[in-house]
Design a protein that fits this description.
Low-confidence stretches: none
CATH superfamily: Aldolase class I
CATH class: Alpha Beta
Radius of gyration: 16 Å
Distance between the termini: 15 Å
CATH architecture: Alpha-Beta Barrel
Shape: globular
């Protein structure tokens, strides 16, 4: 059985790690290079590094920062934010990223998923989907959650898979930063309808929430930020709790 992954997420703005609630009210959470090194040594399975203002500000992800982070970690490392071309991906991979994550650019140009998967392989391509419930339907949002689309989460996720993405990072905007638990019903539906791995994001507040994301949400990985950044949960303690709940993890 494949082990479940625990993934700290480093949201970056102006070179600093930040964290908000429901995508707003950002507060500083520390130096991303230092945090990346701490998590790598603490037993994280992977890291996700998202330049959350890159798409909005129409600039590329800071390749120099990616290089500095990559030099400090020995675990797989995904980078996203403002990626819209093969050239962008080349720069990030050359600077040490293992995988890349696309979001807004994939919606605006779905063929980009095919092109990137074709060149680098599906295992290198993560498609991030930010969605929010509008009139009981999960609607995909772009540009850091600022722009609502009429795209349905589940229909878009299926298309993403068909176009060659290797995994999906689903963030529930309704749950983001609330510490009330993950969107397990939506996660479970995604996991049942798709064959590629699903990363749960948005809502982690305690260790039971991670247990639920794997058992109820049937996720392949769980991503969190503030509970790790502010030392509310230690990764080693979390993994022991998951193992006690018969969830396979790498210790």
């Amino acid at each position: 059985m494949l082990t479940k992954r625990i993934i700290p997420c480093l949201d970056i703005k102006n070179g600093r790690t930040v964290k908000g609630v429901k995508f707003v009210g950002l507060q500083d959470a520390g130096d991303p290079v230092e945090l990346a090194e701490v998590y790598s040594k603490a037993g994280a399975d992977e890291l996700v590094f998202l330049d959350i203002s890159a798409t909005e500000e129409k600039r590329r992800t800071l390749a120099n920062l990616v290089l500095r982070v990559a030099e400090k970690v020995n675990i797989p490392f995904t980078v996203g934010g403002g990626i819209s071309s093969i050239k962008d991906v080349d720069v990030l991979l050359q600077n040490g990223a293992d995988k890349i994550s696309i979001n807004s650019s994939a919606v605006k140009n779905p063929k980009l998923i095919n092109d990137l998967a074709g060149k680098y392989g599906s295992q290198c391509i993560t498609v991030a989907i930010d969605a929010k419930q509008i009139n009981n339907k999960w609607k995909v949002h772009l540009v850091g959650g600022k722009v609502q689309t009429e795209l349905d989460l589940f229909i878009w996720a299926k298309e993403v898979q068909e176009r060659g993405a290797g995994e999906i990072l689903f963030t529930s905007m309704d749950h983001d930063g609330t510490k009330d638990g993950f969107a397990n019903e939506a996660l479970s539906k995604l996991s049942e309808e798709l064959t590629i791995p699903i990363i749960a994001s948005g809502g982690a507040g305690n260790m039971q929430h991670f247990v639920d994301a794997f058992k109820k949400g049937k996720s392949d990985a769980a991503l969190a930020a503030s509970v790790f950044h502010f030392k509310e949960i230690k990764i080693i303690d979390l993994k022991k709790e998951l193992k006690d709940n018969k969830i396979p993890v790498r210790l």
